[in-house]
C-alpha cells in the first residue's frame, strides 16, 4: 500500500473517475476509507473506492467554489471598495457583488475601470 499521495490523485472531471482510474489508484484508497486491506481488490472494493473518491472530489469542488466566491467578495470589498448602488454599504455575499456589477449606472460611470474590475473578479472565480 502506498504511503504518500500523488499531487494529481483526484481527477477534475467526474467522468475520469472510471474503473481504470479506480484500479490504478486503489493502493491509495486506505488513506480515504476504512476497510481497505486487499492488495488485489475485488470488483466491489474497486467500485466502493470509486464511489468514495467521487464523493471526495465533489467535496473538494464545493470547497473550491466557496473559496472562489470568498475571493471575489474580498476583491470587491478590499481592493475595489465597491458599494451597493446608492449606498455606502459594502457587499456581504456574491449576490451583492453581482447586483453591483449588474447596475448600469455603476458600469457606465467609468467603463474602462469597471471592465478591469469585472475581469479581475471573473478571474478570481475561474482560477
Structure write-up:
This protein is an all-alpha fold and 127 residues long. The chain has two domains: 14-61; 67-126. Helix content is 58%, strand content 0%. Helix 1 crosses helix 2 and helix 2 (43-79) runs antiparallel to helix 5 (111-126). The longest helix is centred in the middle third of the chain and has 37 residues, at 43-79. The model has no long low-confidence stretch (mean pLDDT 89).
Fold blueprint:
Layout: H1 19-25, H2 43-79, H3 94-101, H4 104-109, H5 111-126
Give a summary of the structure in a few sentences.
The chain is mostly helical. It is built from five helices and no strands.
The largest pleated sheet is described as: none
Q: Supply Rg.
A: 22 Å
Tell me, what's the shape?
rod-shaped
Low-confidence stretches: none
Task: Give the structural class.
Answer: mainly alpha
Q: What is the number of domains?
A: 2
The tally of strands reads: 0
Percent range for helical residues? 55-70%
Question: What is the CA-CA span between the terminal residues?
Answer: 34 Å
Topology as a string of helices (H) and strands (E): HHHHH
Strand fraction equals: under 5%
Give the overall pLDDT as a whole number.
89
Count of helix runs: 5
Amino acid at each position: 500500500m502506498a504511503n504518500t499521495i500523488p499531487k494529481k490523485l483526484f481527477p477534475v472531471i467526474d467522468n475520469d473517475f472510471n474503473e481504470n482510474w479506480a484500479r490504478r489508484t486503489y493502493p491509495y484508497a486506505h488513506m480515504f476509507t476504512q476497510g481497505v486491506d486487499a492488495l488485489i481488490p475485488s470488483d466491489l472494493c474497486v467500485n466502493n473506492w470509486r464511489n468514495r473518491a467521487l464523493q471526495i472530489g465533489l467535496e473538494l469542488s464545493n470547497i473550491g467554489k466557496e473559496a472562489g466566491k470568498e475571493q471575489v467578495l474580498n476583491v470587491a470589498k478590499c481592493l475595489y471598495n465597491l458599494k451597493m448602488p446608492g449606498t455606502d454599504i459594502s457587499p456581504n455575499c456574491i449576490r451583492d457583488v453581482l447586483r453591483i456589477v449588474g447596475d448600469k449606472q455603476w458600469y457606465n460611470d467609468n467603463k474602462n475601470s469597471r471592465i478591469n474590475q469585472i475581469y479581475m473578479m471573473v478571474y478570481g472565480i475561474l482560477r
